[in-house]
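Our preliminary data section would be incomplete without showing what the modeling component actually yields. Below, a chain of 711 amino acids is followed by its predicted structure, encoded as tokens that our downstream tools consume directly.
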Amino acid sequence: MRQWKRYGWVGLAAVAAVGCGDDPEYPKVENEPVQQQARLESFEECAPLEQYIEDTATRRMRASLEQARPRNGGWLFGDGAMPPTVGMPTEGDANSGGDAPRGPTDHTGTNNQVAGVHEADFVQNDGTRIFVLSGPRLYLHRSWPAEQLTLASSMEIQGWPREMLYDKERQRLVITSQVDDDRPGRPTVWGGSLMTGAPVMDCAGVGFRCGYMGGDTLKVTVVDVSDLAAPKVKQQVFLPGSYLSARRVDGAVRLVLSDDFRWPADIRFYPEYSPSLNRSQKKMNEAIDALIAKNEQLIRAQTLTDWVAPGKHVAEDGTVTPLPVSCGDFYRSNAPTGLGFVTVLSLDLDAAEGAAPVGRTSIVSAPGTVYASPDALYLAASHWWWWPEANQSDHTYLHKFDLSAPSRAVYAGSGTLEGSLVNQFAMDEHEGVLRVATTVSTWRVDPNTNGNGVSAPNTMETHSRVVTFGAEGGHLQELGRSEDLASGERIFSARFVGKKGYVVTFRQTDPLFTFDLSDAAHPRKVGELKIPGFSTYIHPLGDTHLLTFGEDRAEDGSWTSRALKLSLFDVSDLAHPKEAFTHRMGGTSSYSDAQGDHKAFNFFPAKGLLALPFTDWDYSGYDYWTGFKSELRVFRVDTATGFTPVGALSMKDVYQSFNEPQWNWYWSPSVRRSVMADDYVYAISDAGIRVSKADSLQTPVATTRFQPPVR
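Predicted structure:
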């Protein structure tokens, strides 16, 4: 999404008013040019860090208030209208005792993008044990033999759990959760209260949704799970911010968190309403000028400790060690990238017990996309445009961090990319070369659709490409780029496999593009295949086939024949890809977590089985439950014969045991994940786990049930 769109309705309304006539005085905050030689600069001392934060906050505040001005005698909100209450801009992967049982011959784990780089999820397993975060609890299971699936224990996790990493060798779970720490100031999360000056919302009794958005501190809990019946908390880390993503390579854990920028408590983003202001353009502009001056005084009166909160480490014995702010750990970009703080937290699981093995590397920036290889972590942050202008294009700044030291992420260099990224799979590092799939969006002015002299940009042009980068002299230098492709479309999915690349774009049809990346200086599109619909996830099957999941659509791209869709592509001839087999699932109301989360897509190479969570509704029933369906669908996948449905593992009796009001986006007893081990399939939901043999899915052999969150 383009950065200026984050201003919400007020910002868009003001955009429509920009250019309605000559108004040379406004806007006062001018756009900054894209930095073609991007870099991060460290702060040697604390005074420059505080100065930079306050300068950036002042510019952001001014840009927001400038959009509220009436222009050319016309009112932004109309005569007599109250300013709407809308959002401020948002800045913005064993047994207890005795010998462990012999495990299955083979089993599935988390669907990681990169081999050896483990990703966090709310489910983890090692073949004999399954761990699930559901509501405020961690549930620990003995899962093998499958017929003896047993809930061994559970433990409360403070706050609102997000995801966890599992290290089988060290018998550790690293669990992330959000906790409320009652920090001062107002975060730019939803921020409706910032526009009106109303109090920050009170989360008491509201439940997780409010708490998650208001949870201003990330808690990391390291748990020893060597004894399933008696898990032990080994250490805890508290840092300001919210969880974004996490990776683990051996004993080195990297957690990426984003801390929303917190404005002074008394700051306002619209003058206090009065009828006289609404009747006088002069008075409104004077009120806005006065408010800008007052807000800047509030911003400049802050201290660094108001902007950046410290953290703490809690050892197993309860010893608390402060984690003070170290200004040398902070970086700024030489280009505008929004307002906020992004931190890479390094946790060394091999550090001595009782120590505080925590390293922080922070950027003053809005959050972006995270990708990690075994040796490096990349953060992608969008260029921040203060105002929309014609011929403006998206740009992304890529920052690389060296992960060779387990206790710290070390800044290694930055680069500039024209365009934006669909998700983490748009980036991939191979033999020291970073390959990026990007969609370039440029705003144009269409004179045929602009009436009344409006000259604001109103037409977006798009095209996509693959770009390669190499690290040289502390910079990520562009090595080469492919031809521009798919005019008017956007990238919906991407995958890089060795020296080959695959990109799917969509507007009305689904072109699959294939790339030869053997020459990093000349990434080359070599094949293209157009079919209806699109793929949101691409999974490589060896070197010759792709297994994809997405949606099937009508030829015109409409929803008239919409369904979920599995496809097998033969890419053995890179220049002539073929859709060898397809399978449609459900209809216009069908959904799967795997559409937007690759960790819900579970392929078991040892058995050639694919498991997908599946949800659908049939509205012909007399009540909600009659038409609701949630199950785990299993398919046999063969490159020679295609897709063979094996069956569905249903948990209908489990989710029907909960009243619908207990459901929310945070806790849903519908099927969301799966695990496969030898000939058994486990379906996992927030309400429990059920296991069946693959050849008789309709006959469960064991089920465990969880507790719903207390409302």
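The longest strand covers residues 459-472. Residues 1-24, 72-100, 189-214 have pLDDT under 50 and may be disordered. Preliminary results of this kind motivate Aim 1 of the renewal.
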